[in-house]
Amino acid sequence: MAVVGAGMGGLAVTARLARAGHTVTVYEQAPEHGGKLGVLRREGFTFDTGPSLLTLPQVYRDLFAETGAPLDDVVDVVPVEPVCRYRFPDGSTLDLPHAERDVDAAIAGALGPKAARDWRAVMNDAERLWDLVGEPVLQNPLGGVRDLVRRSASVRDLMAIAPWRTLRGLGERRLEDPRLRMLLDRYATYSGSDPRRTPALMTVVPFIEQRFGGWYVLGGLRRLGEALFERCVLLGASFRFDTKVETIETRAGGVSGLVLRDGERVDADVVVSDADAAQLYGALLPDRRARRARRALRKVEPSLSGFVLLLALRGRTPDAAHHRVLFPADYDAEFDSIFGKDPRPVPDPTVYVCHPADPSMAPDGAEAWFVLVNAPRQGQVDWTAPGLADRYADRVLEVMANRGLDVRDRLLWREIRTPADWERDTGSVGGAIYGTSSNGPRAALLRPANRSPVPGLFLVGGSAHPGGGLPLVGMSAAIVSRLVGPA
């Protein structure tokens, strides 16, 4: 059995399939595992270059428990408190706590009792949506609209999901405080999307964060990927790094193997692809049976990408928070810059900052900061143009300073990651962080199916059902392992 790609989806499905008795070989074009869950280590500083917050940790607790030793035996998973500190355009701030029981009081204290009541009402409705989609939809194969309808218990359930309503529209109807509307809009970016086009169903994202909390892995979230890789090796899986798959070969009965970049052919009657679905169907799989899947992908929009600064800073930050989000005055201008007719680097972006209170991540008396801003994909903007990355990095630091977080005089050095780097390093189209966006009902609910049109070929990872982000990627691996079955 062959797995194409050693991102978190590829690793998770490999562990499950190896545990089920399959002989698994993983082919990864990069020199190491992890995909977007990357790491940079330099001069005593350690940076997670991908996800920095774990929600729904039970997905990985189940994975590790079902493949060997429990998760807590191999990594330290700790709560993040607060989960995030938000700074709004008027200078007000909101610390959203880890524990759901404390959320109402935090919002009331920062934004007023009316805001807390409004938010709670939206989250109560989101709880019902989670009951409707959490297990029936997200944790089972979904092959199309018929599956979605079949998994809904009633017409009332479909009306509750209401895919024609947008996240922005719900906020405008239900949340009086513009700061709360801005907060709700932000959760569209968890799937790399535009809140003006993302279905209101995405209210389940903040609900999940508040119901199950935000978590961090000591030593960085990369440790989760390393622990999962070690689990795969213990279970007998083989890995071939620096090995690019050029073609997935098929025959009348289904998949037959792989052709590697050097011309080597590998026989396999089961292939699991952790490659971006657009890359799989557009480049790796010439089979005519995939024509419908290719057409469907052409109708959806890839997710946004990200521009990242890794900052090595001298000194310590008073009143630090693990995560900060610094909102702009005009949030719509950001989405226009990314998803509009003339994509360009966002002039005044939302800035996301992570600086964990983890002494293992930086030398004594120093801090390692991960800074992310949403960005158009490579190809929409030529991020390799001379000087662009450095100029934009300077602009992001200036924006941070204008919003009360000036670290320029503390800067020892910086590393820059652009959408072009994400595309090169992960194979995602244009450096799209989440595969396809959730811009529209079909894109949000009907991502590429885990079972391909070619027998024996399966899709795992953030570009396939149920979507991007560590929890959903873990769910996709569980779905695929059930579809493949035991050896």
Automatic annotation (TrEMBL):
Alphabetized UniProt keyword annotations: Carotenoid biosynthesis, Oxidoreductase
Glycoprotein is among the record's keywords: no
Protein origin, superkingdom: Bacteria
InterPro entries associated with the record: Amino_oxidase, Carotenoid/retinoid_OxRdtase, FAD/NAD-bd_sf
Domain Amine oxidase residue range list: 8-467
Pfam families: Amino_oxidase
Pathway assigned to this chain's UniProt record: Carotenoid biosynthesis
Annotated family: Belongs to the carotenoid/retinoid oxidoreductase family.
Name of the molecule in the record: Phytoene desaturase
Species the sequence originates in: Lentzea pudingi
